Amino acid sequence: MLISPQAADEAIRRHMPQLSTELRPLSQCVGRILRQDVHAERDNPPFDRVCMDGVAIKRAAAEQGVRRFTIQAIQAAGSAPLTLEREDFAIEVMTGAMLPHNTDVVVPLEEYSVGDGAVLLSENAKIAHYRNVQHQGQDGPSGAVVLQSGALLGAPEIAVAASAGLSRLQVSADPAFMIISTGDELVEPGEPIAEHQVRSSNAYGMIATLRARGFQRIGSDHIVDDGAKLNERLALHLATHDVLILSGGVSMGKFDLVPKALRDLGLREIFHRVAQRPGKPMWFGIGPEGQAVFGLPGNPVSTLVCINRYIIPALNAAAGATRISQERLPLSAPVSCEMPLALFMPVKTVPDEWGRIWAKPRPTNTSGDYISLIGTDGFIELPAGPNTFPKEFVANMFRW
Q1: Which of 20, 56, 65, 66 is the most exposed place for a label (fewest CB within 10 A)?
Q2: What is the DSSP code string of 340-391?
Q3: What is the pLDDT of residues 342-354, one digit of tens each?
Q4: What's the whole-model pTM score?
């Protein structure tokens, strides 16, 4: 029985085992999903902080007409705070330094001149209370949650965790993947190829997709169309991996041996066949030890569509990622869908003269026409037809 893409997505998320967690050095957490809350070590900033290079003075002195200030000392970043000794003195300060005691305004370099050991304020110097000073705790108090569990750790998040004093973080563990291509016709790149054979390309596309999302523990295998060999190799991979992703062998032909092999090995089939084009024969099940197994159609476009539409979101959910709003874009031109199947249409994102982003349809000739995907940014999901979706129809966008 065919199920909708939405039902398939929900079934995968419902049955997908949660990934375990591990404690990793901060430098090795980029691209991982955070599995702990991170609290501020101190107030942010932890002291009244100078925001510009210049001089720190007493505001009252300038307001009383003092324009020439003797330079008392230099306050460098990382040094204990100095104390202004007289109101007609100034302390040179560096960006990031602590505000010297008894000062309450920082005048930037361009608003004064220096000579004979003193600074002379220009006529346009602005003397506002605590100008160019960021107060202690202005960004947040000590103990506040600065990163929540479920955050994807990119450069800003890593920097925030470091500012909280953490050298290691609890993150989702990287599952062990096995990417499996099936079929007698496949030949590896670089190997001699006969007229009746085709290059093995799907595995490389799937591995690239996973690596681009930060996953590293990825193996690959090629299994020919032989029931006994398929059972033997799948049993081995199930015993040693958390997630299996197969390409090919899941349709209705005589050599589509994957669903039977998986059932023979004790997997529980969650669904087989989705009302979508491309990718209709997609299979998903759970192994005896909780292994997640995805059987994707062998056509290259189908494989890339399914891994991005279902598997990547499922992995993020299993890693505890915060669910973000689905990106949606309007069509730049009408698209007709003649079949009662959801249509995944490759698109290129293009801006118009007002800067609005549109999804420009880039249809492929067939689900084997992977060359047409070059230059596209992803695909949109259109509801089942028959229907013609007009320009400006808004649809969910999935990026490669």
Answers
A1: 65
A2: SSEEEEEEEEEE-TTS-EEEEE---SSTT-GGGGTT--EEEEE-SSSEEEPT
A3: 999 999 999 999 9
A4: 0.85
